[in-house]
Amino acid sequence: MQVMEHDSSEGHTSKAVDQSLHSLRMHAVEMGGLVIGQVGGAVKALLQRDVRLANLVLSREPLVNDYDTRLDRDSLTFIAGPVSSSSASVTKRKRSRASRCRPARHRRTTRWSPLPAT
Questions:
Q1: Measured between alpha carbons, how far is 34 from 37 in angstroms, rounded to an integer?
Q2: Where are the domains of the chain?
Q3: Of 12, 44, 52, 54, which sits most exposed with the smallest number of CB within 10 A?
Q4: What is the pLDDT of residues 80-94, one digit of tens each?
Q5: What's the confidence (pLDDT) of residue 93?
C-alpha cells in the first residue's frame, strides 16, 4: 500500500485564492450598486432639473473613483501574485519541451524549425 503525501500548502493557497476572488467580487458588486445609483440619480436630476440632486450625485463621485482605484489595485495585485510565481515553471516547461522536439545533433547549435531545410 502506497501512502500519498499531501502538500498542506495547496489547500492554504486554494483557500487564499478563493478568499481573494470573493473579496474582489464583493467589491465589484458594491461599486456596481453605487454606480447604478449614481446613474439613476443623474438621470432623475436631469429629467426633473433638480440641482440639489445633481449636486448630491457629483458629491459622491470621489467615492466611485475611490472604489475604482481600489478595485484596479487589488485586481492587479491578485493577478501579479500567481503569475510571478508560476511564470518560471511555465518557461522551464517550454524550454524542456522545445529541447525534446529538436534532434539531438542540433541541440544548442541551431534553432529548431518545423519546416524542412531547403
A1: 5
A2: 17-85
A3: 52
A4: 875 544 555 555 555
A5: 54
Rounded CA-CA distance 22/19 in Å is: 5
What CA–CA distance (Å, rounded) separates 106 from 99? 10
Q: Which three cell numbers stand for residue 4?
A: 500519498
Measured from the Cβ of residue 108, the count of other Cβ atoms closer than 10 Å reads: 6
* Look-up of cell digits 500519498: 4
Find how far residue 94's CA is from the centre of its chain.
23
- Enumerate long-range contacts of 34-42, CB under 8 Å, 24 or more apart: 34/60, 34/63, 34/64, 34/67, 35/64, 38/64
- The vertex-72 CA angle with 67 and 77, nearest 5°, equals 125
Higher per-residue pLDDT: 110 or 55: 55
pLDDT tens, residue by residue, 3-21: 445 445 556 678 888 998 9
Place of cell 440639489: 52
For 110, phi and psi rounded to 5 degrees?
Answer: -135, 165
pTM > 0.85: no
Quote the distance between the C-alpha of residue 24 and its chain's center: 10
